[in-house]
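Before relying on records like the one below, remember that each one covers exactly one chain. Contacts with other chains, cofactors or solvent are not represented anywhere in the record.
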Amino acid sequence: MLLGVAVGVALTLVLVVRNLNQPRVRPLYARPEGGWTTVAPSSIDETAHAGVLLLHLDGSLYTGNAQSTLDDVVGRAQADPSVHTVVLEGSVVHVVTVTMIDTFRSMQDELATDGMSLLLSGFPPDTLVVMRRSRWFAESEAAGLTQPTVDAAVAEAAAGADADA
């Protein structure tokens, strides 16, 4: 009986670690009545936010899920040649880790090498206060990395694309 319990605990641990190490982003869609959702609508207007990849960050990043999340975001952006800006919405992020800040920095650098930009939007004010303790984040925020809402980020992305054209 003890062996069965040990196998059950070990299997549960493996499943939990596997689940926690999955990428933490999902696509973000505009709601017809306004606002944003991660639930795909029945029909999607592909031209509504042309060139902007909208993603929702499901939670904080730590060592186990940071690389897979980074790879997922960059891979999605590279898969669509029309993408010029990635907007990463983080309204549910309440725990800030050094790994998360480093991942955002790496994400920004990798996207920039492909001619794309990163905008962070919708992060809670308390989360931003902690993130600003990082010199890189504070400097990037001053340069326009963050926007208060997804709508503001989409508008900023459109303005940046118009300025580049």
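The two ends are 69 Å apart (CA to CA).
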